[in-house]
Design brief:
Blueprint (H helix, E strand, L loop, with lengths): L1 E6 L1 H4 L2 H15 L3 E5 L2 H6 L8 E9 L1 H13 L3 E9 L1 H8 L4 E5 L7 H43 L5 H15 L3 H13 L3 H4 L4 E2 L5 E2 L4 H6 L2
Parallel strand pairs: 1-2, 1-3, 3-4, 4-5
Antiparallel strand pairs: 6-7
Length: 224
């Protein structure tokens, strides 16, 4: 496992904090490679952040500037992250934790707890990622159902029942090798470019028996 400890140069120059950094680095070294960076600007220019498994950010105060820095590097390379601060503003803490994937540890961390904290941060990060993926899947399904409903209304305007409209969209999606949501989006996009008269034009039949809608060439090609 590769670990990265980040802190400001002023933080590492104080004897007590410098000793803590050494203790943390030694503890992390038992789990793999551990590295310390004391320049925030250098960290932001680093293009290898994604190679680390866990990042620990240490600061005296969780200020707006520090919160912005943390969120920028997290967005650039999301990974398990621990933020340790002695002082913090509640608004900045809420801003930091709203993504659900960052672990905050207040005040001083004991070196003998660092391994447990890293495991906790990784478990929290993985669980949050799983939840985000599940929410995205659910959101995509809802959007797909909305698109399908809109597309069925367009097809039903040609005189078909809802059941028949559903079958037409399903058949066209299968023929094109795309999802029903993608097929619905195509129908909506094409029909939205037609004039009202064209959208309500006469229906025809394809060679394979599937209904086509509209007489405009671009619309007809959609159902082939």
């Amino acid at each position: 496992m590769r670990s990265l400890i980040i802190c400001e140069s002023s933080f590492s120059q104080r004897t007590a904090e410098a000793n803590r950094l050494i203790e943390y680095q030694n503890a992390l070294s038992s789990m793999g490679e551990a590295m310390v960076m004391t320049s925030l600007s250098q960290v932001e220019r680093c293009n290898q952040l994604a190679e680390f498994d866990v990042v620990i950010v240490m600061c005296d105060e969780l200020s707006p500037h520090m919160t912005g820095f943390i969120l920028r590097i997290f967005e650039a390379a999301p990974q398990a992250m621990i933020v340790n601060a002695s002082h913090w503003q509640q608004t900045q803490l809420e801003r930091l934790l709203c993504c659900g994937r960052i672990t905050f540890v207040p005040e001083k961390m004991a070196a003998n707890r660092i391994t447990s904290l890293v495991n906790l941060a990784q478990a929290r990060f993985d669980a949050a990622n799983k939840s985000i993926a599940e929410f995205k899947k659910l959101d995509d399904e809802i959007k797909g159902l909305k698109l399908l409903s809109q597309a069925k209304l367009i097809v039903m305007q040609q005189g078909f029942s809802e059941e028949k409209a559903h079958k037409i969209i399903q058949q066209q999606a299968m023929q094109k090798g795309i999802t029903m949501a993608q097929m619905s989006a195509q129908i909506i996009a094409v029909m939205s470019t037609n004039s009202p008269a064209e959208s309500c034009s006469t229906k025809g039949m394809l060679d394979n028996g599937a209904h086509q809608i509209g007489a405009k060439p671009s619309t007809l090609s959609l159902y082939r």
